[in-house]
Specification:
Strand order of the largest sheet: 4-3-5-6-7
Distance between the termini: 12 Å
Radius of gyration: 14 Å
Order of helices and strands: HEEEHEHEHEEH
CATH superfamily: Response regulator
Structural class: alpha/beta
CATH architecture: 3-Layer(aba) Sandwich
Length: 147
């Protein structure tokens, strides 16, 4: 994993919709709902990112090994292993890989369980394209400052 992702992203040749420079990210999207996966993939691809999707946490762990990822976005509530536990498993292998939790839950994150500290960002559903971009930026900054 590129530990200087934030600097690399800032020095990219492309610009986002607000004119700020950015680097195309390799994004793994994890959600058990096909429609959510598809919409997220379209939104991210429209912003110039490369996206691969996973239908559950086990699928995500397999796909995590396929390439280097810049960020993982996962649903919180999925059958089997939830997103917070998936984040903990990811951080065991790749501590500097940003993980964003997508959730419709509106309570405090402390209630998300013992793995809440493994989450680098939270995006509440439903979200807009701007909220998605801002959430990604916050997660990248959080990992950059922690690393």
């Amino acid at each position: 994993m590129d530990t200087n992702l934030f600097e690399r992203r800032r020095s990219g040749q492309s610009v986002d919709r607000q004119g700020a420079p950015f680097h195309s990210l390799q994004v793994l999207v994890v959600d058990d709902e096909p429609a959510i996966r598809e919409v997220l993939a379209i939104m991210l691809a429209t912003d110039g990112h490369t996206v691969l999707t996973a239908c559950d946490s086990e699928d995500a762990l397999r796909k995590l090994e396929l390439r280097e990822w810049d960020i993982v976005m996962t649903d919180r509530a999925m059958p089997g292993m939830g997103g917070d536990e998936l984040a903990a498993r990811i951080k065991d292998k790749r501590p500097l890989l940003p993980v964003i939790l997508l959730t419709g839950y509106t309570g405090p994150m402390e209630s998300a369980g013992p793995h809440a500290r493994m989450i680098d960002g939270i995006i509440k559903k439903p979200f807009t394209g701007s909220e998605l971009r801002e959430g990604i930026e916050r997660a990248l900054l959080a990992v950059h400052h922690a690393g």
